Amino acid sequence: MSSTPRPRLLARLAAASAAAMLALSGCTLLDGGGSGDAPADDGGTGGGATADTAGQPGLQELGDSHADDLPTDPAEDPAYAAFYDQRIQWGVCEDVRSADISCGTITVPIAWDDPEGETIELAVASVEASGKGGRSLVTNPGGPGGSGINFLEYLPYAIAPEVRQAFDIVSFDPRGVGRSAPVECLDDEEIDELRAATAEAGSAEADELSAEWSTRLAESCEQTSGEILPYLDTWSSARDMDVLRAAVGAEELDYLGFSYGTYLGSSYAELYPDRVGRFVLDGAMDPTLTMDELGAGQAEGFDKAARAFLSDCLASGDDCPFKGTEDEAVEQLISFFDSVDAHPLPTSDPDRPLTGSLARAAVLSLLYADSNWTTGYEALTDAMNGDGDLLLTIADLSAEREDDATYRTNSTVAISAINCLDHPGATDEQWLEDEAERLATDYPIFGADFGGNGCLDWPVPPLREPAPIAAEGAGPIVVIGTTGDPATPYAWAQSLADQLDDSVLLTFEGNGHTAYGRSGGCIEGQVNAFLVDGTVPEDGLTC
């Protein structure tokens, strides 16, 4: 077996970044991570196991980061004054779907250790407070690769009225994403081809297809975006976010981050603990995990979520296309995927049949919010009767594919460009093969989609060592975990809360990705009071 990723993994990542935003928006429809054995007693997965404790071999060698360990605080260093003296000139947005959004730009150094060098512009956006306001709340919807500017289009669904009344809601497209020096690799037709690529797991054809796409993506990105690729790590984006803080005139950063946005937020808190204001991290990532540990955690998380989805389907009665016990439904779903691998289903577009990769991407995306489950039952019923239209539509929505066959953002490639810098993975081919086989055996629904190190061919080495974040002196940071979260398993929130010097852990007992806006009021009430009034929630609250 090749140590490069399986095609289904590439298709999963292609759909991932849009899902975090969509799962918050009310129109809900995904997010994406590798290993380590799950702790036996916490109901979660991958909760901080290190490479050594997991029996993992050596990781990729790290390159030189340009942002994690600077000799001075840029905000206090005259060499960076031009960046910190900026004020955003807000104006009309050209390509957003809400008249309430104002847009602007900030300029940041491409390499944070070279303030006199080249610069890039980052796109920023804001929705003015509906009340007196006076403060700015910066947000990030996840990914990595999710557009913070597009996220603001869903603000009425995503953030409570009392928060929008008190704050100007500000967001941005991080470097390499969307409108901010975007990574531009594959064209739209090639992304269609990548997302649809399917072969029988473990076959020679799968090995060849995986190697082909891994090489093709890496070479394309290096050729068209090679100058920006070494500077897309999250440390650099966290530095950028401090410039954004200054540009909106804030002494401290108030922040609400979802999924990958928690990694960005905790990274900022580690760099600038004295500038942390009211921080909420929902759907937390664990910064101690390797690429392989992240993937293994998600393999287990999505397997559990799929079982919950199937169990709920069986309980719904005649609307469910599956029959029998939960285990029997699992076998039926796997058989369906296998059948579509071999014989893609027709859709209303004769040039785009529903392949196995697209079918899996659609079902993965449905697991991000249990409010989508009934739509999933309908889509799977249609597909199991030979009509792939609805599943294809769901897969396309999660990947931000427009009706005109274009992709609204570059999330398909940006997620790889950022993840490959942030998370080193194993390099030993035998270990990768054994681990992929373990995931496929232990988590038979989606485990085969999470094996392999997809960054071995990436033209830039990883820049960041997996390590705990304490953010000493930052003050209370609210961390939120959902017990049935498939993309950021609950154990990750527990681990991050344990690492932080001063944290409050809120737990939502439910299914789906993230909790704020989905918990029925309990989590929302605590978060709103913290953001608006500074009322720190009770640590350990569960609802």
Please provide a brief summary of the model.
Helices cover 40% and strands 11% of the residues. It has 543 residues and is of the alpha/beta class.
Tell me what you see in this structure.
With 543 residues, the chain is α/β, with parallel strands linked by helices. It folds into two domains: 7-12 and 20-60 and 185-224 and 290-449, no CATH class; 110-182 and 233-289 and 468-533, 3-Layer(aba) Sandwich (Rossmann fold). It is 40% helix and 11% strand. It is built from 18 helices and nine strands. Strands 1-2-3-5-4-6-7-8-9 form a nine-stranded mixed beta sheet, sandwiched between helices. α1 packs across α6 and α12 (356-366) packs across α14. The radius of gyration is 22 Å and the shape is globular. Residues 1-54 have low confidence and may be disordered.
Helix-strand blueprint:
Blueprint: H1 7-25, H2 81-84, E1 91-92, E2 101-109, E3 119-127, E4 135-140, H3 148-151, H4 155-158, H5 161-166, E5 167-172, H6 188-196, H7 204-225, H8 234-247, E6 253-258, H9 260-271, E7 276-282, H10 291-316, H11 326-342, H12 356-366, H13 373-384, H14 389-398, H15 411-422, H16 429-442, E8 477-484, H17 490-499, E9 503-511, H18 522-533
Parallel strand pairs: 4-5, 4-6, 6-7, 7-8, 8-9
Antiparallel strand pairs: 1-2, 2-3, 3-5
Helix pairs in contact: 1-6, 1-12, 1-14, 1-15, 8-9, 10-11, 11-12, 12-14
Offer a few descriptive terms.
2 domains, Rossmann fold, disordered N terminus, alpha/beta, nine-stranded mixed sheet, 543 residues, 9 strands, 11% strand
Beta-strand content estimate: 5-15%
Low-confidence stretches: 1-54
Q: Helices and strands, in N-to-C order?
A: HHEEEEHHHEHHHEHEHHHHHHHEHEH
**How many helices?**
18
Q: What is the share of helical residues?
A: 40-55%
Q: What coarse outline follows from CA principal-axis ratios?
A: globular
Content-based structural category: alpha/beta
Oligomer: single chain
Q: Tell me the span between the first and last alpha carbons.
A: 44 Å
Q: Look at the structure and give the mean pLDDT.
A: 89
Total strands: 9
Radius of gyration from the alpha-carbon trace, in angstroms: 22 Å
Q: Tell me the count of domains.
A: 2
Q: What's the story with the biggest beta sheet?
A: 9 strands, mixed
Strand order of the largest sheet: 1-2-3-5-4-6-7-8-9
